[in-house]
Amino acid sequence: MVDDAQRVVIFTGAGISTESGIPDFRSPGGLWTQNKPIYFQDFMASEAMRIEAWQRKFNMDDTFTEARPNAGHMAIARLVQAGKVTSVITQNIDNLHQNSGVPEDKVIELHGNTTYAKCLDCGQRHEIAFVREGFEQSGKPPPCAACNGILKTATISFGQAMPEAEMMRAEAETLACDLFLAIGSSLVVYPAAGFPIIAKQNGAGLVIINREETELDQIADLVINDEAGLTLSSLVPHN
Ligand code: NAD
Ligand code: ZN
User: Fold this and answer.
1) Which residues of this UniProt protein bind Zn(2+) (predicted)?
2) Is 111 among the catalytic positions?
3) Residues 9, 204: Cα–Cα separation, whole Å
4) In whole angstroms, how far apart are CA 206 and each of 22, 26, 108, 164, 220?
5) For 115-131, how does the pLDDT look when each residue is reduced to its tens digit (9 = 90+)?
6) In this predicted model, what pLDDT tens digit does every residue of 136-176 receive, in sequence order?
């Protein structure tokens, strides 16, 4: 199917990164079995919640800073280099597609990026180290250095608006593709999980690669229930 396709879109979820040591949300032992997510409204509503959110972020941070792209990310990067893949749409926030060598302008992050922070008021980017230093000094996240606004990791929380430009790009890429590969996603988080449906309805082939069944298996042309890294390395061998 990849050989026959002209424009492939890759769509990834937390499952592509578990082999890099970042747990997913829903699997046994996943992040949600430890902590319920903090909703955007609650983050905005109280400083105590923002302290809690940042504390959790610092506790998790080594997991993200130490993670390296795995065989699955590397196989996707090779497919991109081969010129087949028009974009990598990801729900992940870990920066591993970029770290694996996929050019930044080909990665569309639907849920943002946890490797830096952003001011919710003026949009200025801040490094995590800046927030951590301020937090260690005062016991709470520092305000934005530019406008005194509220700093949050550059991720999209439940209840927070989706990034408009990324959503529009992802939709355009999905409509233009003839093959859509959904990898390592349970396909239950909307609106992200809408993209495979759009692709299929628009006539593209739909392949799902996931360890366990997903919500959209019944509409897929091919479902592979296996590890993402192993499956993708055999799909795109090293030259
Ligand atoms: P999910 O946790 O709902 O689903 C992950 C899916 O991947 C599961 O169905 C699981 O069976 C499968 N899986 C796990 N390891 C796999 C492997 N090695 N090979 C094949 N399949 C594997 O995750 P989701 O659907 O991506 O949605 C949850 C949200 O959580 C995302 O929107 C994302 O923003 C966020 N998240 C991101 C990260 C990250 O950046 N790495 C990690 C956890 C959660
Ligand atoms: Zn600001």
Assistant:
1) 119, 122, 144, 147
2) yes
3) 10
4) 26, 23, 19, 25, 5
5) 999 999 999 999 999 99
6) 999 999 999 999 999 999 999 999 999 999 999 999 999 99
pLDDT at 93 over 80: yes
Q: How far is the CA of 17 from the centre of ligand 1 (A)?
A: 7
Name the closest ligand to CA 11: 1
Which token pair is 8? 């492939």
The average pLDDT across 192-201 equals 97
Phi-psi group of 184: left, alpha or beta (phi > 0 → left; psi -120 to 50 → alpha; rest → beta): left
Ligand 1 pocket at CB < 6 A = 13-15, 17-19, 22, 24-27, 30-31, 91-94, 111, 184-186, 189, 210-212, 227-228
Residue nearest atom 26 of ligand 1, based on CA coordinates: 13
Q: Say if residue 147 carries a ligand binding annotation.
A: yes
Q: What is the phi/psi pair of residue 77, to 5°?
A: -60, -40
Beta strands 85-90 and 107-109, pairing class: parallel
Residues sharing a CB contact under 8 Å with residue 133, sequence separation 6 or more, in sequence order: 142
Q: In this predicted model, what pLDDT tens digit does every residue of 8-21 receive, in sequence order? A: 999 999 999 999 99
Ligand 1 pocket test, pick from 24, 114, 190 with the greatest ligand atom count within 8 Å of Cβ, gives 24
Are the beta carbons of 184 and 229 closer than 8 angstroms? Answer: no
The domains located in the chain, with CATH, are: 1-21+68-111+162-238 (3.40.50.1220), 23-66+112-155 (3.30.1600.10)
CA–centroid distance, residue 24 to ligand 1 (Å): 4
